[in-house]
Amino acid sequence: MLTVFLVIGLSIIATIFLSLYRAIVGPGVFNRVAAVNVIGTKTIVLLVLIGYYFERPYFFDIALLYAMLNFIGTLVFAKYLEKGDLCS
Amino acid sequence: MFVIVDALVIVLLAGGTFFTVVGTIGLLRFPDFYTRLHATGKCDTLGEGLIILGAVVYHLFYYSESLLVPIKLLFLIFFIFIANPTATHAIVKAAYETGLKPWKPGEERR
Do B69 and A34 touch (CB under 8 A)? Predict the structure, then answer.
């Protein structure tokens, strides 16, 4: 059963690298912000799979924290790009 | 019993990986910013929800003595299902307010 978690985690890592292409090449800043948001959400799943593969339950707390940080970061980027200022 | 649970977990994880890979292909292949977020905003939410749901089922049958971790993972699914479409909507609204035009057929890819 651990092999299944390993294979799924490796395919998630492959999709993270494919999304990194859009984060590097993608024309304009919005494509890059969207790709970074997608990479962050994939990292949450990768942390859960790592927690099961190495049998460390502490990784789920890190996954929760990473979900909240990723959400707040994306919202802050969207507001900054829309208004040009954070406290207006 | 454990064979049935293993099959259910593998089906959930494989379905989640399928939706994640399809969303990533959409992020790479679509011609426009809005169409790219149309692909990833839904496929990633569903795929990651399915993968974490498979982890919840695995935990409930293999480590059934600790119930705090499945509650945490269910809260994580709930949070992803609320936060990911909201973040996508925020980026799309910011791009539309700053004047990024949607792509029409016949135009160049950008």
Answer: no
Query: Distance from A73 to chain B by nearest Cα, in Å?
Result: 9
* Shortest distance, CA A78 to any CA of chain B (angstroms): 5
Q: Note down pLDDT in tens along chain B; length 110 residues.
A: 788 999 999 999 999 999 999 999 999 988 888 999 998 988 999 999 999 999 999 999 888 888 888 999 999 999 999 999 999 999 999 999 888 888 888 777 77
For the beta carbon of residue A16, count every other beta carbon within 10 angstroms: 19
The C-alpha atoms of residue A49 and residue A29 are separated, in whole angstroms, by 31
Q: Which residue of B has its CA nearest to A69?
A: B83
ipTM of predicted complex: 0.88
List of chain A residues whose C-beta atoms are within 8 Å of the C-beta of residue B45:
41
pTM: 0.90
**Which of B17, B15, B14, B5 is closest to B56 using CA atoms?**
B5
- C-alpha B53/C-alpha B45 separation (Å) is 12
Q: Evaluate whether B45 touches B23 at the Cβ level (below 8 Å).
A: no
A18 with B24: Cβ contact below 8 A: yes
